């Protein structure tokens, strides 16, 4: 049966936004020193938020609900501050559990994301805006195009 090309999925190509911060691979790796420190604070904070939420949903014997709620609120505020700090740098946290961070970049006139996650030593992958982690490609492709 013939296929209709108009129904084929197409990649979303977003044009760069004036005034938005974009990173080169070099810029992203330079910023990574600071970004990775924030992520190292964010990771245990996120785990603690999940633990506290679980305790609120399924209290253990002897839990003081007001105390757990207060601690949850403090941890949520701290988590929010860390996410805000990343946004001020110009990066986007895409997955709190995996500590996945995207650095907006421009390639061939379109917006892309340079992709990094906790545990990697440098920014070595990228993906299209409408793609995700599974579609990561080596940044060497960007330098040879």
Overview of this protein structure:
The chain has one domain. The protein is built from three helices and five strands; from the N terminus they run ααβββββα. It has helices at 25-57, 65-89, 140-144, and strands at residues 92-95, 100-107, 110-117, 125-128, 137-138. The chain has a five-stranded antiparallel β-sheet with strand order 1-2-3-4-5. Strand 2 and strand 3 form a beta hairpin. The protein is elongated, with a radius of gyration of 19 Å.
Category by helix and strand content: alpha+beta
- Rg value: 19 Å
Spatial arrangement of strands, main beta sheet: 1-2-3-4-5
Beta-strand residue percentage: 15-25%
- Helix and strand element order: HHEEEEEH
Terminal residue distance: 36 Å
Report the helical percentage: 40-55%
Count of separate DSSP helical elements: 3
Ranges where pLDDT stays below 50 over 5 or more residues in a row are 1-10
Count of all domains: 1
Query: What summary fits the major beta sheet?
Result: 5 strands, antiparallel
Kindly state the mean pLDDT as a whole number?
A: 89
Shape: elongated
Number of strands: 5
In short, what is this structure?
This protein is 43% helix and 18% strand.
Characteristic terms for this protein:
145 residues; alpha+beta; 5-stranded antiparallel sheet; disordered N terminus
Note the topology.
Elements: H1 25-57, H2 65-89, E1 92-95, E2 100-107, E3 110-117, E4 125-128, E5 137-138, H3 140-144
Antiparallel strand pairs: 1-2, 2-3, 3-4, 4-5
């Amino acid at each position: 049966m013939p296929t209709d090309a108009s129904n084929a999925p197409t990649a979303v190509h977003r044009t760069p936004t004036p005034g938005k911060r974009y990173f080169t691979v070099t810029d992203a790796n330079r910023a990574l020193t600071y970004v990775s420190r924030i992520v190292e604070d964010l990771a245990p904070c996120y785990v603690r938020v999940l633990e506290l939420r679980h305790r609120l949903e399924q209290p253990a014997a002897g839990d003081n609900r007001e105390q757990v709620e207060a601690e949850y609120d403090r941890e949520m505020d701290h988590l929010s501050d860390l996410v805000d700090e990343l946004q001020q740098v110009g990066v986007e946290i895409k997955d709190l559990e995996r500590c996945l961070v995207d650095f907006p970049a421009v390639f061939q006139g379109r917006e892309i994301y340079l992709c990094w996650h906790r545990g990697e030593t440098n920014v070595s992958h990228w993906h299209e805006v409408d793609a995700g982690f599974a579609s990561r490609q080596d940044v060497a492709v960007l330098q040879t195009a």
